[in-house]
Amino acid sequence: MCDTEGYTKSLDKLVSMSEKEYYVQLVDINRHQIIVARAILWLLVVVIGFDIASFEWFFNKVPQSTDKLVFLAPVYFFTGLSLILAVIAFYFAVMSIPAIGGYKTLHKNGWAEYSNYAYDQFDQDVENIEALTLNKILSRLDTACTHGSKTNSDRAIKLRTSSYLIISAVVTATAGFLIFLFKLYL
């Protein structure tokens, strides 16, 4: 004999647990990634601004002559490399914004699809409509959670790449600035 009531209760519990997982994927992780992306973008604005200001400062600080070109070449190289790395990092940070990539909804054509499904089962005199409907909802929750997890994982890779590029940009900008200071004042 089938334990239909136990099966339905189990599906109900699974749907409840899956809803929590969906909420974590859609809201909690998403919120954290937005905060991280925003911080990265602000930091990149500072790094890009520093690089551009450094170019201008280097150009004005050193008298323009051909013998100074050898002196400025490594400085411009490192500062230019820093600027390029920062712009690439900016691209990755912008591409990690949650609106790009998106999440799957729990329905394809609207919430009525579940009630229509239940009605169709009722109209056909199918037994255990509740379990069938819960199974359908659970299936959609699973698909949405899997897609959300992949979306969050892809976004995390972009944010991590952007972070590594920021570190590289700051290191190369610092190298260019230190070379300039040592050659100018020593």
UniProtKB/TrEMBL annotation:
Keywords: Membrane, Transmembrane, Transmembrane helix. The keyword Transmembrane applies. The chain crosses the membrane at residues 39-59, 71-94, 164-185. The keyword Transmembrane helix applies. This is Transmembrane protein.
